[in-house]
């Protein structure tokens, strides 16, 4: 096996060949989203400099921003101490990471036992996706 692929073997992929990837804004530190990665998506992210994930619902590689234009430029990639979770620090192009038109997918806040929208919609999803 070549040394170039050894780093992929250090990831503890689950039974489906996936690992969770937390995506964080490199400048501000806010968690933008969580997605799944496989060997191919992680390799492509490193090679292209833009985040690529594995879409479980589509059953294929998902290049973040391929339909919305809200790409994620990868600044840093880290692996946690157990080797089973990835952290991508990114520059979020357009400032929107969520398909709902918000900065982050983590926009719902638990208040008095009720989930409430805590972040505004930056751009209407209908304007983004048509």
TrEMBL record:
<feature type="binding site">
    <location>
        <position position="105"/>
    </location>
    <ligand>
        <name>Zn(2+)</name>
    </ligand>
</feature>
<comment type="similarity">
    <text>Belongs to the PRA-CH family.</text>
</comment>
<dbReference type="InterPro" id="IPR038019">
    <property type="entry name" value="PRib_AMP_CycHydrolase_sf"/>
</dbReference>
<dbReference type="InterPro" id="IPR002496">
    <property type="entry name" value="PRib_AMP_CycHydrolase_dom"/>
</dbReference>
<feature type="binding site">
    <location>
        <position position="82"/>
    </location>
    <ligand>
        <name>Mg(2+)</name>
    </ligand>
</feature>
<dbReference type="Pfam" id="PF01502">
    <property type="entry name" value="PRA-CH"/>
</dbReference>
<comment type="function">
    <text>Catalyzes the hydrolysis of the adenine ring of phosphoribosyl-AMP.</text>
</comment>
<keyword id="KW-0460">Magnesium</keyword>
<protein>
    <recommendedName>
        <fullName>Phosphoribosyl-AMP cyclohydrolase</fullName>
        <ecNumber>3.5.4.19</ecNumber>
    </recommendedName>
</protein>
<dbReference type="GO" id="GO:0004635">
    <property type="term" value="F:phosphoribosyl-AMP cyclohydrolase activity"/>
</dbReference>
<feature type="binding site">
    <location>
        <position position="98"/>
    </location>
    <ligand>
        <name>Zn(2+)</name>
    </ligand>
</feature>
<comment type="subunit">
    <text>Homodimer.</text>
</comment>
<keyword id="KW-0862">Zinc</keyword>
<feature type="binding site">
    <location>
        <position position="81"/>
    </location>
    <ligand>
        <name>Zn(2+)</name>
    </ligand>
</feature>
<comment type="pathway">
    <text>Amino-acid biosynthesis; L-histidine biosynthesis; L-histidine from 5-phospho-alpha-D-ribose 1-diphosphate: step 3/9.</text>
</comment>
<feature type="binding site">
    <location>
        <position position="84"/>
    </location>
    <ligand>
        <name>Mg(2+)</name>
    </ligand>
</feature>
<keyword id="KW-0368">Histidine biosynthesis</keyword>
<keyword id="KW-0963">Cytoplasm</keyword>
<dbReference type="InterPro" id="IPR026660">
    <property type="entry name" value="PRA-CH"/>
</dbReference>
<keyword id="KW-0479">Metal-binding</keyword>
<feature type="domain" description="Phosphoribosyl-AMP cyclohydrolase">
    <location>
        <begin position="33"/>
        <end position="107"/>
    </location>
</feature>
<feature type="binding site">
    <location>
        <position position="80"/>
    </location>
    <ligand>
        <name>Mg(2+)</name>
    </ligand>
</feature>
<keyword id="KW-0028">Amino-acid biosynthesis</keyword>
<keyword id="KW-0378">Hydrolase</keyword>
């Amino acid at each position: 096996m070549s040394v170039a692929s050894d780093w992929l073997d250090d990831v503890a992929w689950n039974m489906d060949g996936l690992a969770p990837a937390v995506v964080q804004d490199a400048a501000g530190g806010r968690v933008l989203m969580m997605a799944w990665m496989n060997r191919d998506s992680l390799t492509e992210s490193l090679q292209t400099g833009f985040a690529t994930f594995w879409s479980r619902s589509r059953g294929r590689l998902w290049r973040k921003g391929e339909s919305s234009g809200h790409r994620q430029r990868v600044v840093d990639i880290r692996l946690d101490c157990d080797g089973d979770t990835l952290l991508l620090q990114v520059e979020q192009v357009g400032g929107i990471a969520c398909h709902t038109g918000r900065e982050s997918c983590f926009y719902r806040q638990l208040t008095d036992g009720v989930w409430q929208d805590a972040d505004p919609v930056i751009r209407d999803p209908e304007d983004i996706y048509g």
